[in-house]
Every structure is written in structure tokens, then in C-alpha cells.
RNA sequence: GCCCUCGUAGCUCAGGGGAUAGAGCACCGGUUUCCUAAACCGGGUGUCGCAAGUUCGAUUCUUGCCGAGGGCGCCA
């Protein structure tokens, strides 16, 4: 049990003894560290309801506390705050318990859920650019967060591979190479084994055809027709789709691997194509939910209490082809069948209405019962300083590969300046530069709140000092260095003893908050809760590091205790960084 | 027009029903015979967009207004 839960239970008991609900006993970290370590504000709210004086109630609670030996001081302050300072011995025992456990004090979740995180969602047609960065690293971080919290989690890339963009790419290739067998309806196969295009070709073709479809209605119509034909199994188009799919996946696997993003499931819209027709049929005939409207098939999802008009969800276009909505609904159907009871869609905030519609339809149709949590875990866009979506100075999008090179190069220059790194072998320098550059990039992005739009700032991603990823990596590296030297000198960690130095106590107090931080991050699904806390842990460690010279400490008991303390710190930091998708080098 | 999100220090951003609203950057100064100075220490900034309401207490919750971004049936 975490220290906050332990204290809350003790205070809850005291409130109950005073005739108040135990929820009033909630203990939280003090907002005034110079006054106390922890505080309990329950008396203020409870006194009003009970018609009692808050200070008197607070005092009654203090009088009712049992096992008082763990407190160094207890005070009623101001209008009725309870300020709590615990003994150094109690802190040491809590830290020891954390060090002894294998999960850094993180309790098993109740209930344990089977979670699917849907993120990344690249189109088949585009190489990755900075726009994909947020979706990928926020999703990856949330997936890891839920796993660390003890849930069963799978991450699904959910590629956009069955909609209009494929139809567009089909007609674009036909325009360029009409003689290819894929376009000959009479061709009976077999189709060529080698792909007629590379991903670079697709990336180049896509914006061209999108632009043409926007300007020429007949082209848009052809793309729709091609999409319909593909979805209805036209062999040439399926064969071509397979090539598009394979070249995209091959490239994306490389890109995501380089980013440190690991999907458990490489599914996409196309995965559920067999389910689309039966689903629409079921909604029309069995459930009587879907109906024809202007030639399209729709589900009405509006409610009486809607403050605004809620457009219906489209299941098919008037030509019978399927849309994003259809595949999303069918995908959810599959996920529920597979037993997931929480589905997080880590998708751009601008798709909020779409998900509202899909979720409503899923509830109405019984595809997702209320017991299955559905959440659009939205994120904001990356903007230029003028508020427009981010573009490079040349007006194009910044490719992810180029951004990675920029941050890696910056990290390598920084490494070149470091005296200590002069004798590192080249391959290690490369690895460090990549880890540090990526660490700066990920931390820089994840430290913004998920939902807020933020301004793209290259300097932020190439800054390695202050509140940055490398600051955290550096703290971990320092600890690894200490532990390495300690091993060389034959020193071993020992029991954690009562802290005597302020910086030591501060570090322990910080580390003990980990379980609540994880809970909070899970609750709000926000990695920046972790970045904030990780920075505080690293800062408290650095202060401790400056104040207490572990390897020079003469008292062997204290030295052994400190070795355990920094070992625990390293475990916490590593856990946090790993959850953020940031690797820690051995040295830097 | 309607709906959603946002508005916090010079800049970039956190925070959040409670006591004196924070951090990084930037600026000035200090720390290296000692475990990695990508570090540490010190120095000062705010009508928390505006106005009402709820509350013992609001920057936080509610409503309205102003401002920014986004969304609103056959794109994803």
C-alpha cells in the first residue's frame, strides 16, 4: 500500500471515530512543503455538512488517531487544515517496502481491464511526417502506461487502408500506367508479384490525385467507383491493394521501430472488410436502426438532450461503398468480441464528432455494451507560431526522418563537446546521440498536455538542458555510474535507514508518490503527468547527489542505505522513462 | 449560425475547490583538488481573457461576453 493510502486509511479511521464519512480522511501531499509533508483537508468540507466547527473537528480527528508513533508532528492550521509530518523512520520503512517490491509500490488495478489502444493510424499512402509524431508517441506512452498500471493492453496501429484514399491511388496509377493488368477487368491473372510502386511513389501520387479530385468532380466519382470496386472484391484492384499495403507496411515498420513505437496488432480498416456487409444488413434488418437517406444508409444517433444537431452516422455512400464510420463500427464489434472492455482512440481532436457518432451508434446497436469503455483520447495539433498547422519554411511538411536526423545531429554535437565522451567508441556515440535526440523529442512533445495545441519549436526538441528528456536521462546515467563504481569497489546496497539530510528526505518523499502519479496519469490518460513527475524526481535526485557524496560517505550503514535509495530512484526513473518511450544510455 | 477545445510570467508551457499560482527558456551572479557541470545554488516577475453566479473558500465549477483554433451527411 502506498504511503498516501496508508495515511488516508489512518485518517479515515479517525474521521469515522468522529462520526464522519471516512472519505474525509484523504491525505494528499502538502501544498506548503515548508509547513508540512502531507495534509488532510477533509475537516473543512465535512464540518460544514455536520454543522460543526472545522478546527474543532480537525482537532477531534487528531485526538482520535491511533498508532501515533509514525508522526513527527500534527497540527491544525488556518481554517482547519491538518498538517502532517511523519517520522524519518516511517519514511525509511515505506521506501524500503517500495524497494523490496517488484512494482515500485504500484498496486494491482481494480478492476483489471483488457484495454485496446488504437493509435498511429497512418494512411497507406504517406510517409511519416511530424503530424504523425503526436499520435504515435502519445499512443505508445498511453499503451505502456496502462501496462505499467497492471492492465492487459494491446496497441493497434489501425491503418487507413480501405477507404477513399486507396480508390484515389488506384485511379492515379491507372492514369499513369493504364496498360497494367490490374486495370484490365478481363485479365484473369496471375498478377505480377513485384509491386508496381514504392512508398515514395505513393507519397508523391497521393497529394496529386487528392488535388485533382477536389477540382474535378468526375475524377472524384472515378475514385469513389474504384473504392466501391475494391471493396466488392474486384481482383485486379485487390491485387494492387496488396502491393500498396505491403510496401507501406514494410516502410512503416521501419519508421515506427526507429521511433521506438511497437504495435501488438498491425490491423487496419481492411481487416474487417468481411464484416461490413453483414453489419450494415444487421443494423437495417434485425435492429431496425439503419435506413436509407438520400441513397446512403445511415444510423440516426441524435438524442433528445442534444444541444445541437447531431448528424447521422453514414454506413454506406449512395453508391454502396463503405466509409471510415463503417469500418470503425465493425472494428469495434470485433474488439468487443475479443473481450476488450476499454478502447482508447488516440486520434486528433478534430475527429471528435466522428467518434461521438460511432460511440452512439455502437451503444444503440448493442455493439458495445455500457460495460465497455469507449474514449476518444484526443490530442491537439502542432502549429506554427501564427496558429496555423505546422509547415516547414518551404511550405511542405517536415518528414519525420528529417526531424529525427536534426535532433540526433544536435545530440551528437552536444556529445562532442562533452569531455568525458571523447573516448567513447563511434557506435556507442551514435547510439547515445540517437537515444538523447529522441529523448528530447519525445519529452518535448509529451510534456505538453495531450489535448492542447502547441507551437512547434525546433529549439525545444534540440534543447538538452533544463526540463528536457536528456535531463532525466542524465540523472539516470549518473546513478548507473555510481552503482557501477560501487560494484567495482565491492560496496553493496543495504537497508534504507532514516534520512537525516533534507535533500535525502525530499527524494524519498518524492519517490513515495509514484503509485498515485501512475493512478492519476491513467485516470486522465495524460503522459504529461508522468513528465512533470519524472522531472521532479530527477531534480530531487540531483539535489541529493550534490548534497550527499555516496562513494565518499564514511558511515557504511548510511552509504549502503544511500546505494539502495539511488537504486530505487533509478528504478523509478527508468520506469517513468520507459513509459514515456525514452531509453536510458549507460553513459552520456 | 450551432457545437467542441483553448485563453495562466517577456517566450514556451504545466497546474488546479483551499493557505503565499508554478517550471523551463531568456537575463544577472555564484559553485568543479569530491560519485559525469547535459548538474547544483541565488536573484523577479502575474488584473490566472472580461463579468456575474455557486461556495466558508473560485485562478479551478456554472453561465454570459470577448479573443484564438477546430468541427458541423456520402473525406479520414
What does this entry look like structurally?
This protein is α/β, with parallel strands linked by helices and 588 residues long. Among the domains are: 3-86, Gyrase A, domain 2 (2-Layer Sandwich); 400-580, Isoleucyl-tRNA Synthetase, Domain 1. The protein has 20 helices and 13 strands. Helix 4 (88-100) crosses helix 17 (502-511), helix 17 packs antiparallel against helix 19 and helix 18 (514-524) runs antiparallel to helix 19. It is globular and about 85 Å long. It binds one RNA strand of 76 nucleotides through helix 2, strand 9, helix 12, helix 13 and strand 13.
Brief overview, please?
The protein has helices at residues 3-17, 42-50, 54-64, 88-100, 130-148, 164-176, 199-215, 217-231, 235-259, 273-286, 324-337, 352-364, 400-417, 426-446, 458-461, 469-488, 502-511, 514-524, 527-547, 556-580; strands spanning 27-29, 38-40, 71-77, 81-86, 114-118, 152-156, 290-293, 296-299, 313-316, 342-345, 373-376, 382-383, 454-455. α7 (199-215) crosses α8. Helices cover 52% and strands 9% of the residues.
CATH superfamily heading of the domain at 400-580: Isoleucyl-tRNA Synthetase, Domain 1
Q: Which architecture of the domain at 400-580 would the CATH scheme give at its second level?
A: Orthogonal Bundle
The parts where pLDDT drops under 50 for at least 5 residues are none
CATH topology of the domain at 400-580: Isoleucyl-tRNA Synthetase, Domain 1
Helix content: 40-55%
The separation of the N and C termini measures 36 Å
